[in-house]
Amino acid sequence: MLWFQSTAKQLAKYSSRPLWKRLCAATTNIPVLTLFTKNPCPLCDEAKEVLQPYKNRFILQEVDITLPENSVWYDRYKYDIPVFHLNGQFLMKHRVDVKKFENQLVKLECQNDENQ
């Protein structure tokens, strides 16, 4: 099992396929960054560009708040997008705070290394 986790972690880290990264995330504890967005959202597009250098260190999950099944998120964030949660916890809104994001990402990566 250890070999699988190690191999899956490497594959997930370097794979460009989102599905493979999602499948591997369950066994490797890759952080999940949730972006609450809508279409159009120029600030969201800008935020994704800022996060591009980190793309191999997390899984990006986009949630369109305008979809009926996401009405709770729409009510909460309709005036604040983009909003980011890291592993289910609020992280930032409106613009990417690179320093805060990097610090939280490193913290999660260190926790994952300790637990392996």
UniProtKB/TrEMBL annotation:
Belongs to the glutaredoxin family. It comes from the Eukaryota. Pfam families: Glrx-like (PF05768). InterPro entries: Glutaredoxin-like, Glutaredoxin-like_YDR286C, Thioredoxin-like_sf. Transmembrane segments: none annotated. This is Glutaredoxin-like protein. It comes from Chelydra serpentina. Keywords: Electron transport, Transport.
